[in-house]
Amino acid sequence: MDSLLNRYRNVTVLVLVIMAQLVLLAYQVKSGNDVRLIRVWAVTAVTPLARTLEGIRSGVTNFIGNYITLHDTRQQNREIREQLGKLKMENQFLRSELSTADRARALSVFQSRTQSRTLAARVIGTGAGAGSKVVFVDRGSVSGVEKGMAVVTPDGIVGKVIAAFPVTSEVVLVTDSSFAAGVISQKSHAHGILRGQGSGTCRVEGVQNEEKVEVGEWFYTSGDDRVFPKGMPAGQVKVVRPGSPFEEIFVEPSGLQNGLEEVLIVLEGVHQMVPDAPNASAAAVHLQSPPPADPSIPQAPSTTAAAPAGTDADRLRNRYKAIGESQNHKFGEGLPGSKPPDFNAPITAKPKPPVAVPPTPPADPQ
Amino acid sequence: MTYSGDRILLGSQRESQVSKFRPWVLFVVPAIAILFNFYIPLFFHFLGFLDLPLLVTVYFALMRRSPIAGTFIGAFIGLAQDSLAKNPLGQYGIVKTLVGYFAASVGLRFDVDHPFIRLLLGFFFFFFHEFFSWVLARALLGQQVDFDLMSTLVLGILNAVVALFLFHFLDRLRETI
Fold first, then answer.
1. Which residue of chain B has the CA closest to A12?
2. Helix (H, G, I), strand (E, B), or coil: what is residue A219?
3. How many domains does chain A contain in total?
4. Which of A206, A300, B7, B47 holds its CA 20 to 30 A away from the CA of A43?
5. ipTM of this model?
6. Cross-chain CB nearest to B83 (options A42, A125, A176)
7. Which residue spans within A133-211 are E strands per DSSP?
8. pLDDT at position A103, please?
């Protein structure tokens, strides 16, 4: 027996190790529980290193940034009288700095305006594995973060917390194939389920073919999933085609478009209204055509043949003016309490006064 | 380091030299590989294709030439990777255990110092890892994930090229006895 085990020692060890992991896997799948202790150990071991790396990176970036800024400033002082081109380079650099500041400000403004109670967090790492759709943020259960909380940016939803460790949380992104959220379309208010696909786009499932969803239309969270508050932008429709049994709708998630450095964790969500108007950034301004003229109402004669139609207020002013002229009434004259013109009386065209012919000058005697 | 010419298969067991590493190398290198996967793709998205923990597993298993050592190296790296991902613990662990075992078995028969063999093994084990992960996810965990063959082949080639340079670098850390 010993010699047999010795002979097949390698395979025996392999089988034992795999069996142990299969048991571990089966326990998690069967019970739906996670082996939290091992994860806490691993995350606790790795995140301080990631924080240190992030600190070093930020420090070096800031130092280099400051050095370049100072260097550019000195160079600008020397060359400002000679080269306008240097100013343009400086301007370009400042613009990139400004966009960074704008992003932080937008997050802060969004946080102060939204009714939901949120917590700002910084992304410090991605999940291990090629093409991972998981990130880690630097806020955890100590800050009040709990599993299942929504993670958003001012641009839209980002994902949800799948594990909260003491000072770190794990967030599954909206593009992950296991992600799902209830959404509602902006125009037709069609309800569906937003699912990640493991790629850059998401898919909205459960929308009937009869529902009219257009390309470019926005989807917002519906609040049905009890994770995301209603009214958060989810993404914009890129492709719509009929499918069986439901419509195939592909959406570009809006929350991940501008990079992912700072996010907000929704501690207490408050539902909002889904905006009826198109998103401001993509909104096109349409002016409605004027309503058709009512044939029962006599139209005021046009003052000039080529006068433009104008607005409703213009037409009303012209009509009142015509009524006044037909009844020999001059607006602005007359004492208070004097009889106003009859606005219900039909407008009669007033004959134009004959044009006076100027007398011909006497002929020159010479 | 010297490559052994054009020979690919080892003539005898005596030719298969076991590479020794200092203990800290066996801990620090996998930790750096895992940390790389955890942190770097955050700023350099294009590096997300790299599976450094896998390449490190393959390297140590090949060089140790011990299936038992390869099994444990693969299991530890895989479980560490699992605990930093959303996968159930064991998904990457099982796959990397198999990778470690087979890589060590291959190391017993092939001249793993040969660059062509390293390129080939880097590609093969990446493909094996991705395919087996997919099988495991579908069969054991019931996840509806797709297997993109073309994308996996391309990523396999890229990882194999990186493996060639990485293995060359890691060779400097080994002590041949």
1. B68
2. strand
3. 3
4. B47
5. 0.81
6. A42
7. 134-137, 150-153, 156-164, 169-173, 180-185, 191-196, 202-205
8. 66
